[in-house]
Each structure stands twice: as C-alpha cells, then as structure tokens.
Amino acid sequence: MRLVGLARRWRQALDAQLLSAGLTDASWTPLIHLQALGDGIPQRELAAAVGLDDSSLVRLLDILTDRGLVERRPDAHDRRIKLIFLTPEGRKTVKSIRTQLVKVEDVLLADIGDEDACAMTRAFDLIESRIEGWFAQRVSAK
C-alpha cells in the first residue's frame, strides 16, 4: 500500500509541475510513451502502454491532434489501423516535458545517493518481473 501511495504522490508532483506548462496527466503521458516507443506505432499499442482502453485514447488523441502535437496516419497494409506520430511541435513539447520532469525528479531525489537509487531500481525491476510472471501464470491457468 505504501508503494501505491508513493506512486500516486509522485504522479501528483509531476502533474503539478506540468500543469503550470499547460499539460495535464492525460496529455503528457501519451506523448512521453510515444517518444519512447517511437513514431508510427499502432494506436492500440500506445493505448496499452499508457494503460487506457482504445476509446479513451481516441478522445485523447483527438485533443492532441487538435493541438498539433500528434498525427494519425493509416497503416499501409491495413487501413483500419491508425499509426501515431509526433509532429515537430509534439517533439518540442516532449522536450519541454522532459525538462520539467527532470526538475521535479532532481528535487524529489536530491538526498538519495547513487547506491540507494541503484538498489531501488533493482528492487523495482524484481517486483515488475514478478508481477509479469504472476499475470502470465494467471493467463496460462485459464
């Protein structure tokens, strides 16, 4: 429960910083994921990465498209599939978001040394791996 609470508070701190730049959690998160995953990913894949259902992402992509940050293009092999790309303005926005995120993280992690940060990252990796294994077992048991 403590980890869940910490994650929520961390996200609130990031959101507060980015809100001053006119970005909400709903708008900055998909942009960061799109940059990390690379241009031209299917809309469904972006939805999974962000943790949204397809219909919620469609509404969000409409907003981001209207703001000139992303564009949708049909897949050359299957026109039902929409591929998502950052626009030049979207790339500038992601760069700004990353700058803002670093500012917050520098404050939140200021007194944490490299050794502690590495230990924390290793622990997160172990937990994430166990969660993936747990879900895989549940799926194969069905």
Short description:
With about 140 residues, the protein is mostly helical. The chain contains six helices and three strands. Helix 1 crosses helix 5 and helix 2 packs across helix 3.
Structure, explained:
There is one protein chain. The chain has 142 residues and is mostly helical. The chain has two domains: 2-110, Winged helix-like DNA-binding domain superfamily/Winged helix DNA-binding domain (Arc Repressor Mutant, subunit A, Orthogonal Bundle); 112-142. It contains six helices and three strands, in the order ααβααββαα. A three-stranded antiparallel β-sheet has the order 1-3-2. A hairpin with a 7-residue loop joins strand 2 (70-74) and strand 3 (82-86). The radius of gyration is 17 Å and the shape is globular.
On the 0-100 scale, what is the average pLDDT? Answer: 91
By CATH reckoning, the class of the largest domain would read Mainly Alpha
Summed up, the domain count is 2
The largest pleated sheet is described as: 3 strands, antiparallel
CATH topology tier name of the largest domain: Arc Repressor Mutant, subunit A
Distance between the termini: 28 Å
Strand content: 5-15%
**Count of helix runs:** 6
Globally, the shape reads: globular
Number of strands: 3
Give the SSE order as H and E letters: HHEHHEEHH
- The helicity comes to over 70%
Name the structural class.
mainly alpha
Strand order of the largest sheet: 1-3-2
Query: What would you give as the CATH superfamily of the largest domain?
Result: Winged helix-like DNA-binding domain superfamily/Winged helix DNA-binding domain
Regions with pLDDT < 50 over 5+ consecutive residues?
A: none
- CATH architecture classification of the largest domain: Orthogonal Bundle
